């Protein structure tokens, strides 16, 4: 069974920190690119950070220097460390696993976890 389960969201004051976790099926996790997306009220879903199976990372400009994505292959878990949070970071955060197969990319999604940053 392929599952992605997020945790770690909550309410935090501006300037604070949160760490999100996403537990994934290890067989899928080991060969997939893992991403964090977010969707704020009235806005489109956007890519926040991504990490390949080889450990290469990329970040949205809005979070560079503040967020860090990492993965633990043994645990089948991807993390998003969020520091210096601002109210604009308020959104539902989704864990995504993207598998590149000959027919095209296949996406798996978690249910999302709410992050709210108060000013």
Q: What is the tally of helical segments?
A: 1
- Average pLDDT, all residues: 93
State the order of secondary-structure elements, H for helix, E for strand: EEEHEEEEEEEE
Number of strands: 11
Overall outline:
globular
Q: N- to C-terminal separation?
A: 40 Å
Poorly predicted regions: none
Which structural category fits the helices and strands?
A: mainly beta
Beta fraction of the residues?
A: over 45%
Radius of gyration: 14 Å
The residue fraction in helices comes out at under 10%
- Major sheet: 7 strands, mixed
Structural notes for this entry:
This protein has 119 residues and is mainly beta. 3% of the residues lie in helices and 55% in strands. It is built from one helix and eleven strands; from the N terminus they run βββαββββββββ. The protein has one helix at 26-29, and strands at residues 4-7, 10-13, 18-24, 33-39, 46-51, 57-59, 67-72, 77-82, 91-101, 104-109, 113-118. The strands form two sheets. Strands 2, 4, 5, 6, 9, 10 and 11 form a seven-stranded mixed beta sheet that branches. A hairpin with a 2-residue loop joins β9 and β10. The radius of gyration is 14 Å and the shape is globular.
């Amino acid at each position: 069974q392929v599952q992605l389960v997020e945790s770690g969201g909550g309410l935090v004051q501006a300037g604070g920190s949160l760490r999100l976790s996403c537990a994934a099926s290890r067989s899928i996790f080991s060969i997939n690119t893992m991403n964090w997306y977010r969707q704020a009220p009235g806005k489109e879903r956007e890519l926040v950070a991504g990490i390949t199976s080889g450990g290469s990372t990329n970040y949205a400009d809005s979070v560079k220097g503040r967020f860090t994505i990492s993965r633990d292959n043994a645990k089948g878990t991807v993390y998003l460390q969020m520091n210096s949070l601002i109210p604009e970071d308020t959104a539902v955060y989704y864990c995504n696993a993207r598998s590149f197969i000959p027919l095209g990319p296949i996406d798996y999604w978690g249910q999302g976890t709410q992050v709210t940053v108060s000013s």
